[in-house]
Specification:
With 153 residues, the protein is an alpha+beta fold. Helix content is 35%, strand content 27%. The chain is built from three helices and seven strands; from the N terminus they run ααβαββββββ. The chain has a four-stranded antiparallel β-sheet. A hairpin with a 4-residue loop joins β2 and β3. The protein is globular. 22% of the residues are buried.
Length: 153
């Protein structure tokens, strides 16, 4: 009986942090795919008053916040193409406490920015479509997954 308890304790001490890190990485990757990739690009009905207003209603629901995020980036490229970017992340972004990298190629991206002229109790967004390189947060240094977009270049 004692060896079984010892093995269980060993597994909890050694594998526990690894399992927690893997779950955090999976959650971050899942959120990135849901919130920052729209491929092929969705067309929202006219009632949403533009792409970003429809998308940001969805984003706010997913992140469960009543606040209006000031800026949000959405990449319009296949997951596999974006996923390749984080295979090797040499830089560590201290401000985000994560590894980060700049994409080698430009991607089609929509930037949703909060409008300064919006009705009270409402989130109204302007859409800007661009084709640029993106700074991505990656889940670790090697063989990582994208977990966020921190800016454009």
């Amino acid at each position: 009986m004692a060896p079984a308890v010892t093995q269980l304790l060993f597994l909890q001490l050694v594998l526990g942090p690894t399992l927690a890190t893997d779950i955090k990485m999976q959650f971050g990757t899942r959120n990135f795919r849901i919130l920052n990739i729209d491929y092929p690009k969705v067309i929202y009905p006219k009632g949403f008053q533009g792409y970003c207003n429809g998308l940001m209603a969805y984003v706010r629901g997913k992140i469960q916040t009543p606040h209006c995020p000031k800026i949000h980036y959405v990449m319009h490229a296949p997951w596999k193409a974006i996923q390749e970017v984080c295979k090797e992340s040499e830089s560590f972004c201290e401000n985000y406490n994560e590894y980060c990298t700049l994409t080698e190629d430009a991607f089609p991206i929509t930037v949703c920015s909060l409008s300064h002229q919006q009705p009270p109790n409402s989130c109204y967004y302007n859409s800007t479509e661009t084709n640029q390189k993106a700074y991505l947060l990656c889940s670790r240094k090697y063989e990582a997954e994208p977990i966020g977009i921190i800016g454009l270049h």
